[in-house]
Amino acid sequence: MECVLVSCAMLAAPTPSDALLARALEARGIAARHVAWDALDPAESAGRALCLRSTWDYHRRADAFLSWLDACEAAGARVENAPSLVRWNADKGYLREFAARGIALPDSAWFAPGERPDLARLAAERGWREFVIKPRTSATAHGTHRLAAGATLADTDWAPILASGALVQEFLEEITTGELSLLYAGGAYSHAVRKVPAPGDYRVQNDFGGRVTAVEPSAAARALADATLAAAPAPTTYARVDIVETARGPRSMELELIEPELFLHVVPPAAARFADAVAAAFTHRSLVP
Q: Fewer Cβ within 10 Å of end Cβ, the chain: N or C?
């Protein structure tokens, strides 16, 4: 019995969270092996259990990654989260579906690939003092820019945004004091952390000096996170909902279903819950006796 925890070539070793998940799986009799996605031949994936974990370069090679995923599925691999969810989640256009369902988001506008929005006009029409623009396929703040009303991007910054289309959102000042991440295993709430950016920054990732602590989310944040996950088009084995609490109430920033950091190293007992969810998913698919 083996589960491949799919990673990427940029990581020389498993992340602390992935290492904890691997140990928890092995305690359940499931061997866990870390392999970079582009080192795994889809032709050899038939019948194998692939759990997407730290594929943290997928957004830089989105077409290649999704083609690899298609090939693994066609070969008969069993992938979690399900490939249909991954494809849906890879384009931040899914947030428009959430807005239509009444999920509270930052004020947002979406643009098609190749479409270059008039940012100064958009900010004026929406009454934004500041806004953020990012590619619709992005991770770890790649290609993300914070701009003041009336500003626009340099020509050299448009390439990744035009390639996948743009998501433009009102900047929420409260993110400078932290963003909540609520983690779910097998659709059930597991734990939460607060990610706080470095002084003077708004990006909460540790790549930019952000720090993380375990927290208990407010009832309002938990309710919004539950509603956000419930809006996904299919059940999930693992999920993370990112939320910013504002004076107008919490706002859902993203639902991460491809390669979210699970912060198991911050809350180590949670590793058992995620191992159970992974084992249950592949048991259901008749891969784990």
A: C
